[in-house]
């Protein structure tokens, strides 16, 4: 639950302008009402950033404030309606009917439009025990009054409910996040090819919601402007994901896994994020995801490709250990590549050169070293010496970031290989797995010194540096999904 809620969009913070206006208005020893001198537009900005119940209370101040509240696009978060001290764990004892009634009153009273509605606590009651408020009333009002940004989480969980199909009638949406719903299946069956259900939708997030392959297909078809698709904590639901969209720029499989991921036609796709680690969920050692990359002319950022988890195909051609590069097995547009490797598992580490050959124009390479529970054989430097040419190493890679460095011989052999092959390398960053321990830091630096002193380095850049630091930064969904960040794997 904590991980899922860390991915769900939050409300905007107060702007400096609004905060300054508030502090100016209630200050001063003369008690003068300075806030009322502000323009309606600024008052509206202030009201839009207040919790919903406080924003509604401003209407009691004067007729002018009533007009301001009514003219301000509504921002509603049901968390602001909860009691300050919940009665019992998971909200047991909370008067959910009263909270649901408050949501209904606010939605009915405000004329619209609705800027943002976030229902993350009372949806379960409204969908099951509240007489169907969510399906019968709330979604109807949200559609009629034009909500831009909608978050619906069926909480408390695992007491769940099926997602009402009426969510497909909210055509005004620009962002939609759905979480912890038992079943999306069937909600899109009435859609036909060519239907435009979400003409303005830019971002869609599905968090631990059971959904079928055909439903995702239909959602993509009926959202012509969709730029961002996120599947969060979806463990093999659906088992197969097809990405076919002319508008998508970013696809995230966050703490998720599927048997097949087919990126078929996505000409505008810039970023494909794959992150399978999820607290409380463990995939079987035999579980693999077949990742097929098709028509992706603009794909610049890809990762983390996992040599244990991902069976890579490019244009339906399987990439195996020893696969030679060809026009059918390369993606030339990728500039930033992240790979996850268990160097202690021989067959997985041997896939690393083949993966690198598929992306000949990579400039920044991120490697995450994963610990092997049962090592099956180490790859020494001789193996890497005998590896054939790798185009990106010889002519493109300028920066390498190696995470979770533990100082074992397999990791050192790979770093030496990079050092002696990467002709344009100007920076190598080593992030330690146990960097908080000063003794460990000194020990790791001692192991890396021979590498830095080696005369066999390929790069002629005199400013080439090795930076060693501790692992003090956690990768996050927000960074991975932020298209304004050029390298989402940096932190």
State the helicity in percent bands. 25-40%
Q: How would you sum up the global shape?
A: elongated
Radius of gyration: 26 Å
Largest sheet: 14 strands, parallel
Spatial gap, N to C terminus: 24 Å
Give me the side-by-side strand order of the main sheet: 1-2-3-4-5-6-8-10-12-15-16-17-18-19
What is the tally of beta strands? Answer: 19
Tell me the β content: 15-25%
Number of domains: 3
Quaternary structure type = single chain
Walk me through what this model shows.
- With 491 residues, this protein is an alpha/beta fold.
- It has 3 domains: 43-86 and 94-182, no CATH class; 192-299; 317-490, no CATH class.
- The protein is 27% helix and 21% strand.
- The protein contains 16 helices and 19 strands.
- The protein has helices spanning 2-7, 16-25, 40-48, 52-57, 63-71, 96-109, 123-129, 133-144, 213-221, 346-349, 352-357, 381-385, 391-395, 409-421, 438-452, 477-481, and strands spanning 74-77, 114-119, 149-153, 175-179, 203-207, 228-232, 240-244, 250-254, 260-265, 271-275, 289-295, 301-306, 310-314, 317-318, 336-341, 364-369, 399-405, 427-432, 465-470.
- Helix 14 links the parallel strand 17 (399-405) and strand 18 (427-432).
- The longest helix has 15 residues, at 438-452.
- It starts with a helix and ends in a 10-residue tail after the last helix.
- Residues 12-28 have low confidence and may be disordered.
